[in-house]
Specification:
Blueprint: H1 5-14, H2 24-42, H3 73-77, E1 83-84, E2 87-88
Antiparallel strand pairs: 1-2
Helix pairs in contact: 1-2
Organism: Jhaorihella thermophila
Family: Belongs to the GatC family.
GO molecular function: asparaginyl-tRNA synthase (glutamine-hydrolyzing) activity; ATP binding; glutaminyl-tRNA synthase (glutamine-hydrolyzing) activity; transferase activity
Amino acid sequence: MSIDENTAAKVAKLARIKVEGDALPALAAEFSAILDFIEQLEEVDVEGVEPMTSVTPMRLKRRKDVVTDGNMQDKILSNAPDAREGFFAVPKVVE
């Protein structure tokens, strides 16, 4: 698949990336190469191949899904320029 310069410029704009006009041909070529590689990967037969989490067979570690506050309030607030009553203190921005 080939990406033209207009499409590359549109993608850059949507990604909020500033790209100079002289860099658009290289960006379009890079996008095209990425899409060509994806098309090449789609040709690989993966029927019957189990998904892997690692190159070595291992089971993922699991923990209980429990909500905690991390017990690090003092440590986190020690980095704040201004903290009061256990919270970050910020300047008032609304009149």
